[in-house]
Write a structure and sequence with these properties.
304 residues; alpha/beta; Rossmann fold; 5-stranded parallel beta sheet; 3-stranded antiparallel beta sheet; 10 helices; globular
């Protein structure tokens, strides 16, 4: 019996490999990230090596917005803040991201958004779920409303989906696996609306970006978020302008607090950091370590 079982498995494995070989003979495909030929049939046209290479953020970061920090040697990290968060408290409690918006992770996000490869949302959802699970430990008790950043109806019709909502649904499935988190988050779609399209953000100052987004978002039914803690979810955190404007709108509508989670964020290195009231300067370190690609520039021009 055991001999037959092993033989059956061998035949099944051979048949699978043969079918895969035949499939790629007639329907050849390359990895959408590195361009190497795919050797296995998959709904996601990304090779295993590229998926394995996607790593979470490491190193010191701002305890509020998640900005990368250059920590002087011998200085304890503690509750450190970047220059901007020292000057003005953001309207959200904290923003976290899985990885840096560059390389393979940026490409995978673009595979979802601009190539409409929807299975990519499952991988991105698993990533942000890992980040949310860590954030959840410091969030208030009770059920958290998970609110995806909305697209304008024209943009959604053009793309066919809202990538933030797809990623949120995938993340929620992952978060429901541990029984402890089964009822911790509730997906709330349609509560936050983008009621007008916004112009290009390229070349605008932080103040101009905020003015560009002013009035772009609205809450459809304040009773759904009244006195509730909100986890705002998006694919990318760039300057934080969108997250901040959404947080302000949600708070004005009656939300208790707003937290932010994204798959990726654009990293800069803050040259001035604060540790328990002490300030340290790092000359010349206020620069972007992952400048926008041509696809990202298109994204900024069109809005999400």
């Amino acid at each position: 019996m055991a001999h037959h079982t092993l033989a059956d498995h061998g035949l099944a494995g051979f048949a699978k490999r043969a079918a895969a070989s035949l499939f790629f003979t007639f329907f050849p495909a390359d990895c959408r990230i590195c361009g190497s030929p795919l050797i296995e049939v998959s709904r996601l046209p990304v090779c295993e090596n590229c998926l394995i290479a996607l790593r979470p953020l490491q190193g010191s970061c701002c305890s509020v917005c998640g900005e990368a920090l250059h920590i002087p040697g011998g200085v304890g990290v503690g509750e450190s803040r970047c220059l901007l968060c020292q000057r003005t408290d953001p309207p959200f409690e904290r923003a976290v991201a899985y990885g840096s918006y560059d390389g393979g992770l940026r490409d995978l996000i673009h595979v979802l958004k601009f190539q409409q490869v929807r299975p990519a949302a499952a991988v991105l959802g698993r990533m942000v779920a890992e980040t949310i699970a860590n954030l959840e430990q410091v969030m208030p008790v009770g059920t958290i409303a998970l609110v995806p950043v909305p697209l304008h109806k024209r943009k959604r019709a053009e793309r066919g989906f809202n990538q933030a909502e797809m990623i949120a649904r995938s993340a929620l499935k992952q978060l429901c696996c541990p029984k402890r988190l089964a009822k911790r988050f509730e997906l709330c779609t349609g509560v936050l609306l983008r009621r007008r399209e916004t112009g290009s953000q390229i070349g605008l100052t932080r103040h101009q970006r905020r003015e560009n987004l002013r009035g772009a978002f609205a809450v459809s039914d304040p009773t759904r978020i009244l006195n509730r803690d909100i986890l705002l979810l998006d694919d990318v955190y760039t300057t934080g302008t969108t997250a901040s404007e959404c947080a302000r709108v949600l708070l004005r509508a009656g939300a208790a607090r707003v937290w932010v989670a994204t798959v990726a964020r654009t990293l800069k290195i803050s040259g001035v950091i604060s540790f328990a009231g002490e300030e340290f300067s790092v000359p010349g370190s206020r620069f972007s370590v992952n400048p926008p690609s041509s696809t990202e520039n298109r994204e900024l021009r069109t809005g999400n």
